[in-house]
Design brief:
single chain; 137 residues
């Protein structure tokens, strides 16, 4: 059995019951270089209670998953897409922003992030980790 991958693997969210998710967003920095910003969206299990989410939320979730799948297909690096994204996450932890998704404005912000996100972390142990022995910490 191969050793488990290092860092956090990303993929379509399969279990919103975990209560939070992490989204990476790519943007153009002042120097023209692509930069990564990451967000933790909390209280996602309660999004359905916020009317604004029902209008746009499912579409936004679909969009970030679509973005992620598209970029994964386009990936030509010398390491796996999951490992690459895991490294991006690790490198950008210090500037991570937490958003509690509890009302209209916070849902709107979360939807904007999801629409532009390049990957979304599955809050559950996703299929990429099946068969590995590991512990969460």
């Amino acid at each position: 059995m191969a050793p488990p991958p290092k860092g956090i693997l990303f993929g379509p969210v399969q279990d919103w019951g975990k209560g939070s998710s992490k989204v990476l967003l790519e943007f153009d920095g002042e120097d023209g270089v692509k930069k990564i910003r990451q967000y933790i969206l909390e209280d996602v299990t309660k999004w359905h209670l916020v009317p604004e989410f029902l209008e746009k939320g499912n579409k936004a979730l679909g969009q970030v998953i679509s973005n992620s799948r598209h970029l994964e297909k386009e990936w030509e690096g010398n390491i796996s897409w999951e490992h690459h994204v895991s490294q991006l996450e690790k490198e950008n932890r210090e500037e991570e922003e937490v958003i509690k998704v509890v009302d209209g404005p916070s849902v709107e912000r979360a939807i904007e992030i999801l629409n532009r996100g390049i990957v979304i972390q599955d809050g559950s142990v996703n299929r990429l980790l099946e068969g590995f022995n590991f512990e969460h910490s």
